[in-house]
Amino acid sequence: MAQRLTSAEVKGLFEKLSNWGRWGKDDQRGALNFITPAKRAAAAALVKTGEVVSMSLPLATITANDNPTPVTHLMMQAGSDSPREAMAGVADYFAISPHGFATTHLDALCHIFWQGRMYNGFDAGEVGSHGARKCSIEVAMPGVVSRGVLLDIAKIKNVEWFEPGHHIFPEDLEAAEKDHGVRVEEGDVLMIRTARPKRRASKGGWEPPKRGLIDMAGLDATCLPWLHERKIAVLGSDGTSDVIPSGYDDVPLPIHIGTLVVMGIHLIDNADLEALSQHCARTNRYAFQFMMAPLVLKRGTASPVNPLAVF
């Protein structure tokens, strides 16, 4: 097991691993710049059978302990109200608070600040009552199409799921690579499975958010140099990528800070990787074409998403 870092060492990594200015002082796309046309073309060449697996949870419309702000879904017109003698239709309305622990969503780079700054040094004041003037979700408007890789940490540890608070270390990531016969490369979208949806289906949602957070398994801060070295474009998880609690009172979400703010890596939170895990194990294929098209919400700090793995 890797030695845990001190709070001072974690903060030191934020300085050492910074991608600020790497793609110019005005850049707002961050590590999405690692996805080149050649990378997309190579990802397309991975498609052999045309099978598609979704990595999204259904939109949750019912309040739960770990979901105090469910999706609002209202019917504006129902079939029972429509006239029978002419053409008719139905319509609905929905409203989503994408952040939290229940909706599969993509965090924009403006979502998290460290010492008053977001990615590339833009001031936190760039996000106001009308949204984000810098690093909003609209920078992903062309979509995210690349090579996706699943590292199934629950599988290699031979557990049904990890309990909340379990730390995943760099050696776990490398053990998964070895087991899966795959290596995470520049421009990849990396998905980490802790089997959280499986645990939730079995035991139900756990405690309400404390200080806005819910305990869950995830990456230890020691994984940050590994993520930087591999030059991933996007990081996703069936949790929030961070182990919670992190063990650092003054750095509660070191993975969020280290990816979104420091390295400019967008995050996918609350994915459902159970079907993908089964497919990868059955076919022994842990690399695939990854496709995702966030909503084009100008000045938005996130978007609900339905990431797809194409085999």
Structural commentary:
The chain is α/β, with parallel strands linked by helices. The protein has helices spanning 7-16, 37-44, 153-156, 170-180, 196-203, 224-230, 254-263, 274-283, and strands at residues 52-54, 72-77, 91-95, 105-107, 127-128, 131-132, 144-152, 167-168, 189-193, 218-219, 234-237, 266-269, 287-292, 302-304, 308-310. The chain has a 9-stranded mixed β-sheet, sandwiched between helices. Strands 2-3 form a two-stranded antiparallel sheet. Strands 5-6 form a two-stranded antiparallel ribbon. β5 (127-128) and β6 form a beta hairpin. α1 packs parallel to α7 (254-263). The longest helix is centred in the middle third of the chain and has 11 residues, at 170-180. The two termini are 34 Å apart. The model has no long low-confidence stretch (mean pLDDT 96).
